[in-house]
Amino acid sequence: MKQIVVIGGGPAGVEAAVAAAKGHSQVTLISEGPIGGRTGWDSLLPSKVWLHAAELAGVAEHTAEGVAIGAVHVTPTEVLNRIKQVAQRWSEREAQRLQAAGVKVVHGVAAFHSPHELIVRNDDSQQTLTADAVIIATGSVPRFPPTMKPDGQRIIAPRFASHLNTLPPDMIVIGGGPTGSEFASLFSRLGVKVTWIVGAPGVLPMFDPAAGAALAAAMTAHGATIHQVDVERAERTEGGVVVTTADGATHTAAMAFLAIGRVPDLSRLNLAAAGLEVGANGQLAVDNYGRTVAGHIFVVGDAAGGPMLANRALAQAWIAGRTAAELSAPGYCPHTVVSAVYTVPEIAQVGIVSGGEGELQRVRASYTASLKAYLSDETEGWVELIYDAVNRQIRGGIAVGTHAADMLAPVALAIQTGATIADLAAVFAAYPTLSEVVFAAARAVK
Ligand SMILES: Cc1cc2nc3c(=O)[nH]c(=O)nc-3n(C[C@H](O)[C@H](O)[C@H](O)COP(=O)(O)OP(=O)(O)OC[C@H]3O[C@@H](n4cnc5c(N)ncnc54)[C@H](O)[C@@H]3O)c2cc1C
Ligand SMILES: NC(=O)c1ccc[n+]([C@@H]2O[C@H](COP(=O)([O-])OP(=O)(O)OC[C@H]3O[C@@H](n4cnc5c(N)ncnc54)[C@H](O)[C@@H]3O)[C@@H](O)[C@H]2O)c1
């Protein structure tokens, strides 16, 4: 029987192990911490609990006409308890999936001893595992330059959000990527005065400029101050932090939140023993199935580099798991992976959104095309479809507004199946729903 070893107990590792176990293989998953990974315990899940709390607090502020809603008080202690509770339940659910699939779990930190041997070390023991195939799903770690190091008290990073038991009066959020955007948005909505230093490329540079501009406008309207410049240093002072930017300015606040990027966590794997070398970009080169040059070693999820998204991690893991187990799998397609940032407004994008002169056409519909948006008093958003100017196939989509990420699910399917703008125009979604806007956009084409 083929022996497949998966390293990492986050979403990518669990998905890869469960997918691989569908073949005639014995699958072992090595997990450093509890099942769920950093995703479940330190990054994605805690951030989403905080966002949900900010959303609840926003309900009191955003009462629909004539409807009296009592004020919602959200305390950090309640949020922290909720993080622990949801993380524990999710971890148990993922562990049960592994058990049901027949995956053996070994706790410890793995390193290659040879291309087909791994040494797993934990506090009290060490063991060697032999593998016909290895799937690396070790995630990523945040990048901190020497002049900007979190201390966990005044200068924090996402993992400290699981311990933040009081909210400061003011906060400097550093980084205009998805993490900085989500935390700047949620802190602002929880009443913290936010100074957001987004970096020279601006707000959400990885998204269409119109999406970043919409978020910047909403944040400014909500009282945040935005500076489009790089930070050079962040230092703790007696009463707070002082942050110095590349233009020589200084900014002070009670706390700073750092989110200026992440890198694959490959450093403890002793890759040289497997004959693998990390490239200048800090990544291992892989093909569409996640295979490295070693052939029997795969890399998936954040460990494979960016964009670091859980849905992308799952897609890569499912493909690599099946391929390692010699089951059929399609090659990974980045164009159907929806990227979403759960800010107010929510921002989402999928596929190709810019191209050569005249190659792509764009059409936009406002949320005002949907009665549902009026019912929930959320008429501010829009959906844009991007399609091929010649064969009119859907190539991409952008959504800004409530449930923007959900709005792009049919667009991802349209890209996958080669549907045209006319195909979408012929669909009338349930009424009243926000998803009507997607199809209304297609009908707006002349
Ligand atoms: C604050 C924040 C919010 C996010 N929100 C979203 C979101 O809303 N939606 C979204 O799609 N994406 C989001 N992401 C990105 C998403 O969390 C990741 O892309 C994805 O979940 C990574 O999963 P993974 O399994 O690759 O890694 P991880 O969850 O990091 O799991 C890897 C595991 O491997 C372990 N490990 C590392 N080395 C070894 C070793 N040598 N031996 C054994 N174990 C090892 C690690 O300890 C870890 O437990 C967010 C990221 C951050 C930072
Ligand atoms: N909702 C989601 O899907 C979600 C949420 C959070 C994070 N993530 C993923 O996690 C990964 C890490 O996210 P991230 O936002 O930390 O990193 P990122 O690399 O995506 O963005 C970092 C941002 O920080 C800015 N920056 C860099 N150096 C700076 C400096 N010295 N001063 C000020 N700004 C600076 C950059 O210009 C960039 O905009 C990304 O791949 C992201 O996609 C996803």
Automatic annotation (TrEMBL):
Which cofactor is essential here? FAD
Cite the FAD/NAD(P)-binding domain residue spans from the record: 3-317
What range(s) does the Pyridine nucleotide-disulphide oxidoreductase dimerisation domain occupy? Answer: 339-438
Cite the binding residues for FAD: 48, 138-140, 302
Please give the biological process terms from Gene Ontology that the record holds: 2-oxoglutarate metabolic process
Enumerate the residues binding NAD(+): 175-182, 261
Family membership noted in the UniProt record? Belongs to the class-I pyridine nucleotide-disulfide oxidoreductase family.
| PANTHER family hit by this protein | DIHYDROLIPOYL DEHYDROGENASE, MITOCHONDRIAL, DISULFIDE OXIDOREDUCTASE
* Name listed for the protein in its UniProt record: FAD-dependent pyridine nucleotide-disulphide oxidoreductase
Q: Which organism is it from?
A: Chloroflexus aggregans (strain MD-66 / DSM 9485)
